[in-house]
Amino acid sequence: MSIDDKVQALRQEIRAFFAKNLPPEFARKTLAGDKLTKEEHKQWHALLREKGWHVPLWPKEHGGPGWGPMERFIWEEESGMAGAPRLNHVSQDLLGPVLIEFGTPEQKAELLPRILSSEDWWCQGFSEPQAGSDLANLQMRAVRDGDDYIVTGTKLWTSYAHVANKIFCLVRTSTDGPKQAGISFLLIDMEQPGVTVSPIYTLGGMLSVNEVQIDEVRVPVTNLVGREGGAWDITKFLLGNERLMGAWIGVNMAFARQVRERLEQVGPDGRKRSENAVLAQRVAEVETDLVALRYTTYRVLADELSGKAPGPEVSVIKVRGGEIMQNLTELLMEMAEAEGMVHPLTMPHDGLPVVPFELEHMAQQFFDKRKLTIYGGSSEIQRNIIARRLLNV
Ligand SMILES: Cc1cc2nc3c(=O)[nH]c(=O)nc-3n(C[C@H](O)[C@H](O)[C@H](O)COP(=O)(O)OP(=O)(O)OC[C@H]3O[C@@H](n4cnc5c(N)ncnc54)[C@H](O)[C@@H]3O)c2cc1C
């Protein structure tokens, strides 16, 4: 079987699996940008687990399907297009690979199975009030006391902290020498006194980010990943993985499909929206951008398949993937016309929807997707990387 045949066979297998097993309500919610409950996530996790596809990025020896970059990419693409919910992404796609690469045998033995069983939900504690783009400026401190560290500080914009039971944090273990060299990677149990999570509601009316305060919490030294002061390499490894996912090809294709459908429908003036040449051109432009991004992603994948680690071109993918999704959601909101103006926060709370579900969520999607060019390293920071490391300016 050629590589192409294998890829096609996997695509068909994934599609057939989704057609048979993905609950339509989960797909509908995911495509509309509505959040699934933790219980619904667990239900989807259990279905995937039976098939062996619950941790698609992981190697076989740790319970994953052992897929290479191409198979993982197809999985992402098909999941996005089908509206399959993303599972516990911070635990599986960010921390899991870090533990596999840098964790001690004990950490792997204890923590990986708890992610596999969906027992542990991790969140990522990197950013702080004075440390976002300039991450090395972080101040959360961990002071050694016998076999423990005593940790104090504040993490900000922590996604999913309100549903997580554990947090991995970048902490300052030393103030000597270069800032980066004094940072360590620590695993912290959130279910203990001294950890306070405060929700932050964003512009789209959604709860996904939080502030996490940690006040004199004891953390065993055995929870250190890598060596003390060695977090910077781990951070680069983790952020590289996060940015590679930033293309959002499948999800963008699902949005593009909705945009095209709406463009072909009749608008409130009784004419097909596609008769509006300006609108039709904007849709064609973003569709073309998406095709170009897909091929750029294939080029990065081809490098990976030949054994090259993802380089600064991943920044191009992240910037474009986010911008395309912002453009698509903007078009969708515009084409929802009057209904698109209904902001979720202004909806009446008497249980009676004033607009259909998918339209109600369009404004929410539009506002929510502004985050894509901020988190995981803002677009300005990515452009600095592109200028310095790709264009050599
Ligand atoms: C929805 C969402 C979820 C998030 N989830 C998490 C999470 O789970 N865990 C976590 O640790 N963090 C998370 N973050 C935080 C995110 O990583 C930071 O917001 C991001 O790194 C930017 O940092 P900042 O907000 O402090 O902005 P700042 O760094 O203060 O930047 C402010 C502005 O200045 C620009 N800027 C800064 N420095 C430069 C420069 N050198 N050159 C050019 N322009 C510059 C930035 O691009 C930005 O426009 C999340 C953020 C959002 C919005």
Automatic annotation (TrEMBL):
PANTHER family for the chain: ACYL-COA DEHYDROGENASE, ACYL-COA DEHYDROGENASE FADE29
Cofactor(s) recorded in Swiss-Prot or TrEMBL: FAD
Protein name listed in UniProt: Acyl-CoA dehydrogenase
Record domain Acyl-CoA oxidase/dehydrogenase middle: where: 123-216
Family recorded in the similarity comment: Belongs to the acyl-CoA dehydrogenase family.
Domain of life: Bacteria
Pfam families (alphabetical): Acyl-CoA_dh_1 (PF00441), Acyl-CoA_dh_M (PF02770), Acyl-CoA_dh_N (PF02771)
Gene Ontology CC entries for this record: plasma membrane
Record domain Acyl-CoA dehydrogenase/oxidase C-terminal: where: 232-391
Residue stretches making up the Acyl-CoA dehydrogenase/oxidase N-terminal domain: 6-119
Keyword line: FAD, Flavoprotein, Oxidoreductase
Any one GO molecular function term: oxidoreductase activity, acting on the CH-CH group of donors
